[in-house]
Amino acid sequence: MTAVTRGDGPTQPPERRGTDGGEAVARALDPSGELRSAASDCVHCGFCLPACPTYQLWGEEMDSPRGRIHLITQALDGSQLTAEASAHFDRCLGCMACVTACPSGVRYDRLIEAARTWTEEPPPGPRPAPARSLRDRAVRAAIFATFPYPRRLRALAGPLRGMQWARLDRLAGRSRAAQRLAPELSSALRLAPGNPPGGRSPGRRSPGRRAALPGRVPARGQRRAVVGMLTGCVQQVFFPEVNTATARVLAAEGCDVIIPAGQGCCGALSLHSGRASEAAGFARRTITVFEQAGVDAIVVNSAGCGSAMKEYGALLAAPDGAGRDGARQDGTGQDGAGQDGTGAGWAARAAALSGKVRDLSEFLAELYGGSGGPQAERHELPVRVAYHDACHLAHAQRIRQQPRDLLRAIPGLELAEVGDGATCCGSAGVYNLLQPEAARELGERKAAAVRATGAALVVSANPGCSLQIAASLAGTDGTAPAVAHTAQVLDASIRGLPATALTGG
């Protein structure tokens, strides 16, 4: 089966290896047979096609989940993937809309993550896919040497903002040469939070300034739980006010909030980009830090982070606590062994921690259900809100109703649905840096759908979505809706703030 790519000519079918070589590669790619079993669940019904954003954009089979599963199956049969086939994997957003649309329960998420490791972290022996170009490898190395590390990301934010003040972002956006030669930089300039004419965000601090959070925020009133809070990477640097609001809301609802100082990246960006061993290292560090915190639950206010942390059990299920490809790292260059020095028991520890992870809206819904509802009074907040379903919340975690219930419970708030079928906004981790054209088109579609609601405020539960939507709204005419997190809306209502504290109007 072949398909025509976007102006690049026909996709070349994978090349068939010799029988012995093909079988060896297939065994290396799928030693347990899990991937072949998952791929065989696909009955080619096509329910995934209208749910897939890239199929919506281009209408091409190989840029659909069904087409990509076909390519994965060919690789598992021993064929060597071509560069064109690998490009189809790269163009997948990983939004998981197909997972919730699939009537057969195909675990496409596991399949696409595995397929990405074949390029990023190929197993020993013959490569299942061609190596990336030197430029591509350099760009990805720079991204993953920066974004998972808040200090480095904060250091990068200053120059980006300076370039925005100099209007170089607008120049790059209009320059075909810049978009052709340095599309990742052009995209970063467009996305980085500065002072855009639209797409405002309430309470936004300069990315260069840190919003100090104490190690413990005590519960107000009767204590109902002791929770840990993940501060994240992008959230911590670009949206510190969201972390502050999250801690205040939890405390107001009777929770002691523990914010471990030693926490770092959870590994979500790496995991969703095929860098499994890197993600496993970050996961082990996160597990150790929160185990020492001794909390009842770990509350996460970033959809992508929460989704990854709930997958720790699968990520660290390999023998001896290795990542899915058997590598042994902890994200800091240190050995990944456990406290006993053996590395044993990581899968059990990972599963135990994953069982404690809750999205903010998910945790509050469970807290209210088990202890008689909200403890903190909600004050009137007269504002029309458009709620955006972050993909890794709605599809990966199946959390849709809880944030809507929390928003609807606020007096005076009017909730509007975005009429695009919860299609991805185009953020998708680092997708909008690596695939800027597709991300921009999806962002423009999302901005149009948000504007059509007539809302003064758009609410998202993921920092990447907030950056993408704000940037896309800034490129439209007129005054754009402000962008906020669910936690900020709850915090404003609890504190009795006016709607203008969120909308800026």
Describe the fold and architecture.
By secondary structure, this protein is an alpha/beta fold. 48% of the residues lie in helices and 8% in strands. It is built from 27 helices and 11 strands. It has helices spanning 19-29, 34-40, 53-58, 65-76, 83-90, 97-101, 108-120, 134-144, 150-165, 168-174, 176-181, 183-191, 234-238, 240-252, 268-271, 276-293, 303-309, 312-315, 346-354, 360-371, 391-394, 401-408, 431-434, 436-452, 463-474, 486-495, 500-503, and strands at residues 15-16, 79-80, 216-217, 225-229, 255-258, 297-300, 357-359, 383-387, 413-417, 457-460, 482-485. The strands form 3 sheets. The protein has a 5-stranded mixed sheet with strand order 3-5-4-6-7. The chain has a 4-stranded parallel sheet with strand order 9-8-10-11. Strands 1-2 form a two-stranded antiparallel sheet. It starts with 14 loop residues before the first strand and ends with a helix.
Notable features of this structure?
27 helices, 505 residues, five-stranded mixed sheet, 11 strands
Q: In a few lines, what is going on in this structure?
A:
With 505 residues, the protein is of the alpha/beta class. 48% of the residues lie in helices and 8% in strands. The strands form three sheets. A five-stranded mixed β-sheet has the order 3-5-4-6-7.
